[in-house]
Amino acid sequence: MSDFGALARIQQGLAQLEADRLLRQRPLLESAQGAQVRVGGRELVSFSSNDYLGLANDPALARAAVAAIGEYGVGAGASHLVTGHHRLHHEFEQAFAAFVGKPAALLFSTGYMANLGVLTALLTRHGEVFADRLNHASLNDAAQQCGAKFTRHAHADLGQLESQLKKSAARDKLICADLVFSMDGDVADVDRLLALAEAHDAWLYLDDAHGFGVLNDGRGGLTAAARQSPRVIYLATLGKAAGVFGAAVAAHADVVAWLAQKARSYVYTTATPPLLAAALLASLQQIAAGQARRDRLRRHIQRVREGLGALPRWRLMPSATPIQPLLIGENAEALAVSGKLLEQGLLVPAIRTPTVPRGGARLRISLSASHSEAEVGRLVSALARLAAT
N or C: which end of the chain has fewer CB within 10 A? Predict the structure, then answer.
């Protein structure tokens, strides 16, 4: 141990994480992302990626990026409000807004930065954030940093949310929720959330990290009413089903104009490379024309639900999305099951505390349109055998 006290405490913390079997390692990916990957020298079938449509290694996206490099180079060279806002960024923002049915959009570097930028730009100490307890960590961090009161309700308990809104004396209120919850795979009730926002004069901020590209013909989880409402702010991350990188926030044009001035995580950072915006434009085209991919993905979801819905030991949690969580229980058992699948060439991550509550360790099966029916069947058969032992 070091005689530097602060470093020694870090070393003790790492040792404790290892003792508790909570020390995470970064698997070394040695291939392109896809259903078949090479990790640490092994060829594996991956059920661990959020590349839901198989676009991360799509040739059309690669061609668009290469062409943009040839014409515009690599780096953006400046922040958006200086000289970094490229024509390709602008074209993507316009195309994204039109695709999801909102008036305008703003391109952020990451979903984390988007959540931080939106909440800190819209709320001060005079506001209050109302959040689902299973929201993504980035939403929680943004709520804690914006200076507003932070009020959480039980997962999907809109009765409790309504009670909290009624009691609030805040000048500015914002309801925020994942649209597809990343660990459980369930979908928020957008129209009921919107009705509460309207009844209590609140913003409704929806983080659709896992629904964009998959739900509603690819346009994500917004309903018709949510598209039309000026109080709805919609986030889609672009490194999952879209296969690239970044995040886009779509909203009323004046909200987007305000964010471009006041969202510090947008203003005070160098713009993303134009080549990524070119790839995102190609991705939007693939998503719009990608019904065959989504149909194949739905068949995979149905196969998993039919095959794993009645296992003798573990419970497949309710989900109609590509996220299929298999509840195991304890961290050690989840790790053991994941390890046994890995021995068979199947990469399925074990999700443990603190990401999920104690006793809620699970395998998070992530399905992709790029999986074959045989690969999905192989996973189902392997888990059925393990559950029977």
Answer: C
Per-residue pLDDT of the chain (389 residues; tens, 9 = 90+): 568 999 999 999 999 999 988 888 899 999 999 999 999 999 999 999 999 999 999 999 999 999 999 999 999 999 999 999 999 999 999 999 999 999 999 999 999 999 999 999 999 999 999 999 999 999 999 999 999 999 999 999 999 999 999 999 999 999 999 999 988 899 999 999 999 999 999 999 999 999 999 999 999 999 999 999 999 999 999 999 999 999 999 999 999 999 999 999 999 999 999 999 999 999 999 999 999 999 999 999 999 999 999 998 899 999 999 999 999 999 999 999 999 999 999 999 999 888 888 899 999 999 999 999 999 999 999 999 999 98
Q: Are the C-beta atoms of residues 294 and 367 closer than 8 Å to each other? A: no
Contact 283, 243 (CB under 8 A): yes
- Tell me how far CA of residue 56 lies from CA of 92, 216, 239, 296, in angstroms: 18, 21, 8, 17
The alpha helices in 328-372, defined as continuous H runs, are 331-343
Distance CA 287, CA 281 (A): 10
Neighbours of 378 (CB within 10 A): 16
Q: Starting from the edge strand earliest in sequence, which strands make up the sheet with 315-316, in order?
A: 315-316, 323-329, 361-366, 350-351
Domains of the chain: 27-53+291-388 (3.90.1150.10), 59-288 (3.40.640.10)
Copy the structure tokens of residue 236.
């889609």
Terminal Cα-to-Cα distance of the chain (whole angstroms):
43
CA 170 – CA 342 distance, rounded (Å): 51
Q: Is the dihedral of CA 367, 370, 374, 379 positive or negative?
A: negative
Contact 55, 279 (CB under 8 A): no
Outline where 27-73 has alpha helix (H). Answer: 59-72
Helices (H), 20-155: 59-72, 87-100, 111-122, 137-145
Which residues are within 8 A (CB) of 203 and not within 5 positions of it... i.e. 6 or more apart? Answer: 122, 172, 173, 174, 175, 197, 231, 232, 233
pTM reported for the whole predicted model: 0.94
| The pair of three-digit structure tokens given for residue 223, joined into one six-digit string | 């309903």
